[in-house]
Amino acid sequence: MRGALAVLVLLLACGRAEAEGDRIWSALVLATKETPPSAIPAGLERFAATIRRIFGYNSLYLLGEKKRDLFSGGEEWLVPSKEFFFRVQSLSRDATFYTLRIELYRDKNLLLTTEAKLAKNAPLYIRGPEWGSGQLILLLEVR
Amino acid sequence: MRAKNFRASFAICMKNSDETDWTVTRSLLRKHLTAPRLEHPDFVNQRVLQELERLGERPRASAFPLRWLAWSGATAIVCAGLLTLLFLPRDAGRRSDKDFISQVVSARAEMPQLSVSEFSVPDERGVVIWIEGAEYIPAESSVR
């Protein structure tokens, strides 16, 4: 009987961990046009084709990234770089997506406020300012 | 053919001989064999009764595994119910593709020189927010 109870507790713990295991990932990326294109950094391969198609850049550089746990009703600061960072508030959670209120800051200045429904592994691309010879792109993705 | 007939008649002969011998032996046993007298019949009787009682108690022992099986079954049903509640989505009905695509509900620029537009990434599940009017950052400035 004790063994059965132990197994039950373990299963419940695993289930809870699985249910609340979603995380939000943010990244600051520099996109440039280069000939020949530079190698895509690990972790950005999935986004390279879309960035090339939508923004027109063929080379990517990962300037910073940050990952945080997502909890319904919770609030997180995602700071992929000291210059650009996010305040993310989880408003609600559905079976397939989170409804988030996202604020994008540059230094101490609030640039953008958005409410978005982010499905798992369906990223949000934010076209930021130009930097040097390239374009800053901010990425947010629920994983 | 002759050998075959001989074998059959020999078998019949042996069978008849065995039956005759067995009849004789059985009649002799009935005549002379008697049950031995017990020296302590009460003791033997008591032991036999004890053994019968012990045998009668055995089925009770088998009740334990049955009870254990019943509890195991009930526990398994409870576990299945809990796991179903935990892992199965509450509204496990049919979902449209839209439920797996990110969407921007609203977006607004917080600085007067900025403007914002949003659109879905064609043929993908992602979404784009396009900020126009952001100040150019010289390459000498750090953004890391």
Give a structural overview:
The complex is a heterodimer of chains A (143) and B (144). With 143 residues, chain A is α+β, with helices and mostly antiparallel strands. Chain A has one domain (22-142). Helix content of chain A is 20%, strand content 51%. Chain A has 2 helices and 8 strands, in the order H-E-H-E-E-E-E-E-E-E. Chain A has a 4-stranded antiparallel beta sheet. In chain A, strands 3-4-5-6 form a 4-stranded antiparallel beta sheet, with no helix packed on it. With 144 residues, chain B is an alpha+beta fold. Among the domains of chain B are: 40-92; 97-132, no CATH class. In chain B, 53% of the residues lie in helices and 13% in strands. Chain B is built from 3 helices and 3 strands. A two-stranded antiparallel ribbon of chain B has the order 2-3. The radius of gyration of chain B is 48 Å and the shape is elongated. The termini of chain B are far apart. At the A-B interface, helix 1, strand 6 and strand 7 of A face helix 3, strand 1 and strand 3 of B. Strand 7 of chain A pairs parallel with strand 3 of chain B.
Write the layout of secondary structure elements.
The complex is a heterodimer of chains A (143) and B (144).
Chain A: H1 2-19, E1 23-32, H2 45-54, E2 59-69, E3 75-78, E4 84-93, E5 97-106, E6 109-119, E7 124-131, E8 134-142
Antiparallel strand pairs in A: 1-2, 1-8, 3-4, 4-5, 5-6, 7-8
Chain B: H1 2-32, H2 41-61, H3 63-87, E1 103-109, E2 115-120, E3 127-132
Antiparallel strand pairs in B: 2-3
Give a brief description.
The complex is a heterodimer of chains A (143) and B (144). With 143 residues, chain A is an alpha+beta fold. Chain A has helices at residues 2-19, 45-54; strands at 23-32, 59-69, 75-78, 84-93, 97-106, 109-119, 124-131, 134-142.
